[in-house]
Amino acid sequence: MTQLVELQNSLPKFEQAGMKLYGISYDEPAALAEFSQHHGITWPLLSDMGSKVIRRFGILNHHVARDHVPYYGIPFPGTYIIDEDGIVIEKLFNRHYAGRSSPELMIDSALGEILLGEDEPSTKVGNDDVQVSATFHGGDGTIKNSVVRQLVVRFELAEGLHIYDEPVPDGMVSTRIEVTGPSGVRTGELFKPPTHPLSLSDLGIELNVWEGQVDFALPVWIDDRISGVTREHAMSDVPLTITIKYQACDDRVCRIPQQEN
Amino acid sequence: MSQANAFPEHKDEFGTVAPIPANMSPRSPPEEGFRFGPEIGELFPDISLLNSTGTRINLHEDWQNSKAAVVFFRSAVW
After folding, report:
1. Nearest CA in chain B to A42
2. Class of domain A2-111
3. Is the CB of B22 less than 8 angstroms away from the CB of A221?
């Protein structure tokens, strides 16, 4: 429900992105109407009574026993992103945990780029040639039980410079991003954009590099150790430590590896 | 033992009760080869469902040429 209300609050962003929003659950229409009225939901919630569509999609939550009434029939929570032609272009199912996606992740997935908000919490380091920012993306800076945000690390590299993905030979540093926080802060698999191949033929080395603006996104969520029933549900004061290691090089010269905290 | 005692209750921020917290992990991937519905690159299936006022909505007809997000959620009741 947290997710549905948050989506309602983000409806203007969806409209701006030219996106429509639909929700599907196994509830009967009257229950959806009551919920919509109570929480001011104006986007369509659709009734899949008997979980027919949920079963057809193969997303029935089989961890709930058949005799576990009324909970049997729920889906694994997830979202399909559809393009203008009705084609599925992204599936936001969090396979190893039950987190729900932020509205911002849905919009980014539809548009194919990460749209950072000007008012999102952000920190920036670097110099004229290499700017590195870390932004807590989604939910207007709040972290909530069960909703997944993203920590977006954006490199802006001057022309001619690049940074490295793994693998790299000894003596060079690949780009690494780590986030730690209090017990209960969880992180998922780092999203890395596609690399370009770079061949150093003199040395017989093939490298994978990024150039220009490079966005890395790390899923971040919290579990009950931080946000339980007795605590605030929308928290904005969870300290995160972000460690970024990288080495920027051009065709001839490599700079000293950097570590930013 | 009553149903309520058999399944520990968890309240969300709106006070609704569920048998498991919303963010409880299933601890393992759902199934080997789990498909998660239509694949990326496939046409979204042709689906018609009732909305909260009882009107039948065909998704493809409704969104026409807009981008869309279709969110499968647990329940609006608990």
Report:
1. B52
2. alpha beta
3. no
